[in-house]
Design goal:
- The chain has 177 residues and is an alpha/beta fold.
- 30% of the residues lie in helices and 36% in strands.
- The protein has a seven-stranded mixed sheet, with helices on both faces.
- It starts with a helix and ends with a strand.
- The mean pLDDT is 95.
């Protein structure tokens, strides 16, 4: 199984959530046990190719949780959730960021990382880079080091990669123009 298999499990949905948008739906990939396992294996292979040695995976809700936990389990390391505002019960770091349609907030527990942690951020999609950059900022606020960001899908035409910090590795499994 390969990237082509992943691509076959990602469904293009025209005009969602509004006219003119081509939405890439990963729910069929999530529903396919072999596809989900393959995703974790391919991500682990990329990490090895890039010679990254993360000590922990972090990911934003909601699909970053799914792919991040699958990868963390595959690698035998922990996972740190990055949540929407108001979802975490203890002291948090907060980051406000811009979306295509407004502003949003993400948070992480202040004690989520150790000072020597090497963090790999994982999410389903790199579009404009807003969410990914907010995650980078939160990891830095928490005192850990971001090694890179790994995505299942990258929408190259939105140039999110260009908005990411230049000192971290950025990779994606499936790329669309």
């Amino acid at each position: 199984m390969s990237i082509k298999k992943l691509e076959s499990l990602i469904v293009a949905v025209p005009d969602f959530p509004k006219p003119g948008i081509l939405f890439r739906d990963v729910t069929p990939l999530l529903a396919d046990p072999a596809g989900l396992t393959l995703t974790a294996k391919l991500m682990a292979k990329r990490i090895k190719q890039l010679k990254l040695k993360p000590t922990v995976i972090a990911g934003p809700e909601s699909r970053g949780f799914i792919f991040g936990v699958a990868l963390a389990k595959h690698l035998g390391i922990g996972f740190v959730p990055i949540r929407k505002r108001g979802k975490l019960p203890r002291a948090v770091y907060d980051c406000e960021y811009e979306l295509e349609y407004g502003m949003d907030h993400l948070e992480v527990h202040q004690d989520a990382f150790h000072a020597n942690d090497q963090v790999l951020l994982v999410d389903d999609l790199l579009a404009t880079g807003g969410t990914a950059n907010a995650c980078v900022e939160l990891v830095k606020k928490a005192g850990a080091t971001v090694l890179g960001s790994l995505f299942v899908i990258e929408l190259k035409g939105l140039k999110g990669r260009d908005r990411m910090p230049k000192n971290i590795h950025i990779d994606s499994l499936v790329k669309y123009e």
